[in-house]
Write a structure and sequence with these properties.
Layout lengths: L2 H7 L8 H13 L4 H8 L10 H6 L11 H10 L43 H12 L8 E2 L2 E6 L2 E6 L8 H10 L4 H4 L9 E3 L16 E6 L6 H10 L4 E6 L5 E9 L2 H17 L14 E3 L3 E3 L2 E10 L4 H11 L9 H4 L9 E3 L3 E2 L3 E6 L5 H14 L2 E2 L2 E2 L4 E6 L4 H15 L9 E5 L7 H12 L4 E7 L12 H18 L2 E7 L19 H4 L3 E8 L3 H23 L9 H4 L2 H11 L2 H20 L1 E9 L8 E6 L2 E4 L16 H31 L8 H8 L3 H11 L1 E3 L6 E3 L8
Helix pairs in contact: 1-5, 2-3, 2-5, 6-7, 13-14, 15-16, 18-20, 18-21, 22-23, 22-24, 23-24
């Protein structure tokens, strides 16, 4: 038997309301079953089954953006008392449980309370007492004494007819006081079947939900546990029961005060009531949700047993009083504890997940502007945790991790992981530690996603869950503190239920960020900054041309060095230490020593390196930490597709772009441009000087002017600004600090 068929074995259609019955059909169609399967299962509810109804309804199931899946069947089976074995039922990652059960109170009752059948049972007084307890004198009462018979496999079942609803409670009580037997007023009933009554007042025109005039009461009934146990649970729950009736069969009928203003509120209160009962061990018959539902009428017999009133007005006085009480005693909050009791036995702190930044089971937010490579940074973190390596210089604990991808299509996401692994140049020995949940186009609000995530991850032993990005699942207005507090509470649920860290990213607010503290840069409410245990903030550093040129010079020298050593192992005798740091010198030396084809390949590699350097962006990461001391800001290069820590210190003096007025930035830009022009001329001179400096013989001013094709007076001016002078005797151009014999 497969999973779905096994679930259907544990779901009784007679205990489902109409919508739940429809949900079963929709779930079966979604899981690939036929209408025949639904029809066969529906036949178990002989009282409501109609041939052809399944087929007609089946045709209306045309799919939905939020389909009812096999998870709904799983929950219905659990609601009816089935206890799943973990190895028996499996669902794919798109299955969903239709019912949320968080924050529902729970009470246990271990002992039953016996019923005491009334010694002097007076049918007439039973009915009058029932009517006086539930109804006002002018309320129309619906009751049923007539039945019709249905044969089920040789067994006769008595079912109620529509009954009567034309008389008021006052009229019935008046007539009952005059008569000798209740049949004289209500009509004859079959002793094998008993009689019924509707517990809410009607308008006298019909007996359906729309005929209910006031939504005062709801019926709580269960026949899956001993009557004595039912009696105990109902009382221990202190339900606001107006009247409790023994049905003459397997159950008690508790008529509970609901006092709803309208049908919508009635449904919500009954749903809450049934959930409380269910979690307290009382398997409530959910078919009784309707406000026009029939209940057993006291004062009649049923198969030789009396239907009688067990008690009236028990439990709390009203729905509000009961609701406040049940919420208070079952708030699931821990009790306060004395510090002195724990002083010498402090609990162990959670071990670090990211050394000096984040503990296991805690929350971290990575914030930054668009195109900061936040997703790449989080993928780098996944790799570091999976392999137990470093992330931005911080050692990570090895473990299993779930990456919830909300933004990228599946193929792009998988390629990114491989690209990052390759760029990091670390072994992929533990890629099995990384699970990816691709939800692009399927994301839902976080309060709906959290329970689904918890269910899927509960047996995976994840050390961390990364959610990227949160704007896809955000609920409410991100500028509202209370709404964002509710949103962030979902991360706490994931942490607490799974015992793992939750890491997520968010974008910066608009405008410059230089004038803000790192914790104030994330867009939206300040809750984003206060809620996580660690907030890491990425801000871009504006790069100067001189820094990019210096980077290119270093990268180019390394490339030249690599090529030169292929053909000349010991070249240090011919190249000075200073020359090794000059791209022009290294390139010229390579041109002389390398074969023409190899030199051409070197030049192509230099061109690519120049493009790569110009594509780099610089970033500073700052931390606001709850569990650890703050670390010094870390400067990074985002060299697609990974971030590298800047080891040179060249980025230390750069400042984050602030909110300086545009006119002031323009003035500063003009000054910087003029300065760059001057520096550019100096650089041109020094490059020409180095090119003309041959065989340890300095060049003359005229040689440099000829090389640059510039007037000699212009070159003299550039030389002076660059700190060069002309030696009197030789006319060679030298650095001023190389001699005191200057012109």
């Amino acid at each position: 038997m497969n999973d779905i068929e096994q679930l259907l074995e544990h779901i009784d259609p007679a205990k489902l309301n109409y919508q739940e019955w429809v949900n079963v059909g929709m779930a079966l169609k979604h899981e690939g079953y036929s209408v025949t399967d639904w029809d066969k299962w529906s036949r178990k509810d002989a009282g409501r089954y109609h041939s052809g109804k399944c087929e007609k309804k089946w045709q209306s199931f045309n799919g939905s953006a939020s389909p009812v899946t096999g998870g709904t069947l799983f929950q219905y089976a659990k609601d009816q008392g089935w206890t799943p074995q973990h190895e028996d039922i499996t669902f794919d990652w798109d299955s969903e449980i239709s019912r949320e059960t968080d924050d529902i109170p729970f009470i246990n009752s271990n002992e039953g309370i016996k019923l005491s059948e009334p010694e002097n049972w007076d049918p007439k007084n039973e009915v009058i007492r029932y009517l006086e307890t539930l109804f006002d004198a002018n309320d129309n009462v619906g009751y049923v004494t007539e039945t019709w018979e249905k044969n089920e496999d040789g067994n006769v079942k008595y079912l109620p007819t529509k009954g009567s609803c034309s008389r008021t409670a006052g009229d019935l009580i008046k007539e009952l006081n005059k008569c000798s037997e209740i049949q004289d007023v209500l009509g004859d009933y079959k002793p094998e079947a008993g009689a019924w009554v509707r517990f809410n007042p009607l308008d006298g025109k019909g007996v359906k939900n729309e005929n209910v005039t006031e939504f005062r009461y709801a019926l709580v009934e269960s026949d899956s546990m001993p009557v004595e146990s039912q009696n105990a649970v109902l009382r221990e729950l202190e339900l606001p029961i107006a009247i409790l009736v023994y049905s003459g069969g397997k159950s008690l009928h508790a008529i509970v005060k609901i006092d709803a203003a309208d049908y919508d509120e009635y449904r919500k209160r009954v749903s809450y009531l049934y959930d409380v009962c269910r979690k307290s061990g009382l398997d409530v018959d959910k078919a009784n949700r309707n406000p026009s539902r029939l209940s057993r009428l006291p004062g009649v017999t049923r198969n030789g047993k009396k239907q009688y009133i067990v008690d009236t007005n028990i439990g709390k006085e009203s729905w509000d009083e009961w609701y406040n009480w049940i919420e208070k005693i079952n708030d699931d909050l821990p009790e306060p504890e004395s510090l002195s009791a724990e002083w010498d036995h402090l609990p162990e702190l959670s071990p670090p997940l990211i050394d000096g930044v984040l503990r296991q089971g805690h929350k971290m937010l990575l914030a930054g502007p668009s195109k900061a490579g936040k997703s790449y940074a989080l993928i780098e973190l996944c790799c570091a945790i999976a392999e137990g390596t470093e992330w931005f210089g911080f050692k990570c604990t090895r473990g299993r991790i779930l990456y919830v991808n909300l933004e990228l299509d599946r193929a792009s996401c998988l390629h990114r992981f491989k690209d990052v692994y390759s760029a990091l140049d670390i072994p992929c020995d533990h890629i099995g530690n990384i699970d990816i949940w691709n939800l692009r186009g399927k994301s839902i609000p976080m309060d709906k996603l959290a329970p689904k995530l918890i269910r899927r991850a509960s047996s995976k032993n994840y050390i961390a869950v990364i959610i990227d990005p949160i704007y896809k699942v955000i609920t409410g207005d991100e500028n509202s503190a209370d709404q964002m507090a509710h949103f962030c509470n979902q991360f706490d649920k994931v942490c607490n239920e799974l015992g793992c860290a939750v890491i997520y990213c968010h974008h910066h607010s608009k405008g410059g960020q230089g004038g803000k503290k790192s914790m104030d840069r994330a867009s939206g409410s300040g809750v984003f900054a206060r809620d996580p245990d660690a907030l890491l903030d990425l801000t871009e550093l504006p790069l100067k041309d001189s820094i990019l040129k210096e980077n290119y010079n270093k990268a180019g020298c390394d490339i030249c060095l690599k090529w030169i050593t292929r053909f000349e192992n010991d070249f240090t005798e011919n190249v000075s230490r200073d020359d090794v740091l000059s791209l022009s010198k290294m390139k010229e030396y390579a041109r002389q020593k390398l074969p023409e084809q190899s030199y051409a390949l070197l030049c192509n590699e230099l061109k690519k390196a120049e493009k790569d350097v110009n594509r780099r962006t610089a970033w500073r990461i700052e931390g606001t930490l709850r569990e650890f001391a703050a670390f010094e800001p870390i400067n990074l290069w985002f060299d697609y597709p990974i971030h590298n820590v800047d080891q040179s210190g060249i980025l230390n003096d750069l400042q984050v772009e602030d909110n300086t007025p545009p006119w002031q930035r323009a003035v500063e830009k003009h000054k910087e441009s003029a300065k760059k022009t001057r520096l550019s001329n100096i650089e041109k001179f020094e490059q020409a000087y180095n090119e003309c400096y041959l065989d340890d013989v300095p060049p003359t001013m005229q040689e440099i002017a000829d090389y640059l094709d510039k007037p000699i007076n212009t070159v003299r001016d550039w030389a002076k600004k660059a700190g060069y002078t002309v030696k009197k005797n030789t006319k060679f151009v030298i650095k001023e600090d190389d001699t005191s014999d200057e012109q």
